[in-house]
Amino acid sequence: MQANRITAKRRSPWRIALETVLGLIRARPQDVEASSLPVEDATPPEALPEAVTKPLEATLNAVDFLAQIDDALRFVYVSDASIAFIGYHRDYLGMLTLHDLVPSSEADELNALVARAKASGKLESATLSLVKSLTYPICVELRLLSTAAQGVPGFALAAFEVSHWRDNEAKLTHALNHDPLTGLANLAALIPAVNAVQAEAEHTRTQAALVLIDIDDYQRINRALGYDAGDDMLRETARRIQHAAGHGETVARIASDEFAVLLPAGATAESAESLGRRLLTAIAQPYRYRGQHTHLSASVGVALYPDHAGPATSAPGTIDAHLLRMADHALAEAKEAGGNTLVFHAIDDDTADAERLKLEADLYEAVRNGEFSLHFQPITSSLSGGVVGVEALMRWQHPVHGLVPPSDFIPLAESIGLINYLGNWVLKAACMQLVQWDAIGIRLEYVSVNVSPQQFRDKRFTFAVQEALALTGLDPKRLVFEITESLLMHDPEEATRLLETLRAFGIRFAVDDFGTGYSSLAYLQRFPLSKLKIDRSFVENLLTSRNNRAIVSAVVGLAQSLGLELVAEGVETEAQRDLLTEMGCDHIQGWLISHALPSEELARSFKSNSLFLHEAL
């Protein structure tokens, strides 16, 4: 035999059975072609371990009748479970053909099935009868797939007893759509029901309604009386809700302690509210468990369709379960109000929620599409007027809405977990920009980067800082992190540890928006800080407010006593700058000097001498 020639070994019955199972059970009709089943087998029967044969045998036993037949419909292989099912001895069955197991009255149907399977090369099926043990016929779904095992034409065959199959299917369908504890419909059953009543409401130009009920602090029952008591009260709650619901209304248990009542098309706000009030009253009645009385309350959220579901769907069959989502919002409001109350969903909430959801999606797209950039606002010496550094500020250029304010997208980025990614990008880009300015003769003392609380508390933050410095080659002494008082006070011990670690690199720190928090002198002394930035709210009315002047004067004295540089933010007029300089403020930042500018525009401002470097540099 030549070394490069592949010789097919005899296929084992297990392999034939496995192929049959894969082709006839898992596949849907018309999905499998005969050529998709392997005809080569390198595993002889004795090589199959018990770990394979046992689960495989269990799989085969799930099929009522599984066999391989040749082109003359003679049985080549029949599984053990199939022998038991059909009731014939294996040797006797070996003398029969498939025609012998089908009543003569259905011979034409069998021949047609065989012809279809042979012609199409795909899985074909028909409902026929098989005669068991020479006694009585049973109705089966017979599936045939044309094969050529070992080069011999034939068919893989599987049969499922229809009555048994359909009975199990009905039981499974019921189990999948009902709550086992209460017997009510579950969420899987409620969603298509909601879609159906929404469609009916649109068709009839009426309204449908959904009432959601959540038991207030239900877990206290489990904690105090045990899970058996909790289950008993859930069953009783289900009974009370069913009793309160009207004819044609669907009652479901959709979560551990949450129920729903779906009112069909034709419902009104009044009928939905009336039902909700009845439910509150019913649940408020005492519960009795093993002689002990217990009281429960509930929160109820109500929504109407189409009033509370936005515009109608654009295409038939594409209705989303808006009603469920809106009722859930109302339920959340009822819970926030303290429970034992009913809340209708407010239409105004839809717009805000939809806008936020759209902005979230746009924010992810912005990250993917690189829609963010950095602008830089100069910080000048109050004495010389020269620029000592810049603050890096992130900007989002939305393709439709234009420039999105940071006050809109920064909190959103924090809430959806993007702020660390964006913050690390800003850090690298700001360091790189300072190095690039150095290359063209604009050597600033430092760049200031804002650090969010989430970013600061991220365990990978220190690594991200080291990575940015290594990537850009920037001297760490030229990097300033702006942090807030609240960030420091959230966990002073951990904040001190991290600040000391970063200061060891040479990085400096500025407290941003100082004066709006609650830092004390004692706390400020414990942190390794370099700068304080007076919040713009104190600068805005500095000339007219005696209180603001007193606050700024106190901050100046505090900074001087701690040896910290002081930066005034939001300076817009020369009078403000002059007074701040007179009071002892070291640095000025604000629109009086310059708006935040793109890097190229800021470079042009230096070249045109509208901005100049601090003389000490």
From TrEMBL:
The record ties this protein, via Gene3D superfamilies, to: 3.30.70.270, EAL domain
Q: Which InterPro entries match?
A: Biofilm_reg_signaling, EAL_dom, EAL_sf, GGDEF_dom, Nucleotide_cyclase, PAS, Rev_trsase/Diguanyl_cyclase
Q: Any idea where the GGDEF domain is?
A: 206-347
> Where in this chain does the record put each EAL domain?
356-610
At the top level, the lineage of the source is: Bacteria
- SUPFAM superfamilies (UniProt xref): EAL domain-like (SSF141868), Nucleotide cyclase (SSF55073)
What is this protein identified as? Answer: Diguanylate cyclase
